[in-house]
């Protein structure tokens, strides 16, 4: 392989920890009036409702109103884009792995999301310095799993698709998109056992990449 490309959320960035911190900060005034167990229920329900970022934030807002009587007088989708980046953290081993791979391979990111929201997260975490190219769907006008965005990444790196591997956590977006584009793929799932009949390469921590490449 000549190039390794990454998804960002829940691959390089620890989105679950970041989302937990975000909701605890967003709802702090409401949680302060609850007992500890109920307060934790609110946060956990928010994390389930948003489906690792795949659900519309309006679903979370509706849940809060319906189940807990919490009314937010703003659009949670817009607020998310403007504020989530402040809470964002990388996985503990992200910097170490990128440092190891940098110089050995060309590196890239393909991430779905708004140009502003994803751009602020990338800037806040400081990972941009490791990468030769970064593609954000909101800027590109095309999103994973469309093979086109994978083709663009390979072209910008100057590497044939068959010499690229893509690492991501969402099977339908990351693995399917990469394979359809002619790339190899590695499925990253750090949240425990997940069943899969397809014989894809799998890792449970980014550090596993140091043993593979």
| CATH topology heading of the largest domain | Rossmann fold
**Estimated share of beta-strand residues:** 5-15%
**CATH superfamily of the largest domain, please?**
HAD superfamily/HAD-like
- Largest sheet, described in full? 6 strands, parallel
CATH architecture of the largest domain: 3-Layer(aba) Sandwich
**Inertia-based shape:** elongated
Q: Mean of the pLDDT scores?
A: 95
**How much is the radius of gyration in Å?**
18 Å
Offer a quick outline of the entry.
The protein has 213 residues and is α/β, with parallel strands linked by helices. It has helices at 15-26, 28-31, 36-50, 57-68, 76-83, 94-101, 115-125, 137-140, 147-157, 171-180, 209-212; strands spanning 3-6, 106-111, 133-136, 164-168, 184-188, 201-203. Strands 3-2-1-4-5-6 form a six-stranded parallel sheet, sandwiched between helices.
Which tags fit this structure?
213 residues, alpha/beta, Rossmann fold, 2 domains, 11 helices
What does this structure look like?
The protein has 213 residues and is an alpha/beta fold. The protein has a six-stranded parallel sheet, sandwiched between helices. The termini are close together. It has eleven helices and six strands. Helix 3 (36-50) runs antiparallel to helix 4 (57-68). The mean pLDDT is 95. 35% of the residues are buried. It is elongated, with a radius of gyration of 18 Å. The chain has two domains: 3-14 and 89-212, HAD superfamily/HAD-like (Rossmann fold); 15-87. Helix 7 links the parallel strand 2 (106-111) and strand 3. The chain has helices at residues 15-26, 28-31, 36-50, 57-68, 76-83, 94-101, 115-125, 137-140, 147-157, 171-180, 209-212; strands spanning 3-6, 106-111, 133-136, 164-168, 184-188, 201-203.
């Amino acid at each position: 392989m000549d190039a390794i490309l990454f998804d960002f959320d829940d691959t390089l960035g620890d989105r679950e920890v970041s989302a937990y911190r975000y909701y605890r900060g967003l709802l702090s005034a409401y949680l302060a009036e609850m007992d500890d167990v109920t307060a934790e229920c609110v946060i956990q329900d928010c994390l389930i409702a948003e489906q690792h970022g795949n659900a519309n934030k309006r679903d979370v807002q509706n849940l809060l109103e319906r189940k807990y009587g919490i009314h937010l007088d703003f659009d949670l989708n817009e607020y998310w884009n403007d504020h989530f980046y402040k809470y964002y953290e990388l996985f503990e081993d992200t910097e170490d792995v990128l440092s190891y791979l940098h110089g050995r391979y060309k590196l890239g990111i393909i991430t779905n999301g708004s140009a502003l929201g994803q751009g602020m997260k990338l800037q806040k975490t400081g990972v941009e310095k490791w990468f030769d190219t970064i593609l954000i769907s909101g800027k590109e006008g095309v999103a994973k799993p469309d093979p086109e965005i994978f083709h663009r990444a390979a072209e910008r790196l100057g590497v044939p698709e068959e010499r690229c591997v893509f690492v991501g956590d969402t099977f339908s977006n990351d693995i399917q998109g990469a394979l359809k584009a002619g790339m190899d793929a590695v499925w990253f799932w750090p949240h425990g056992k997940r069943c899969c009949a397809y014989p894809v390469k799998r890792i449970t921590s980014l550090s596993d990449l140091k043993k593979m490449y």
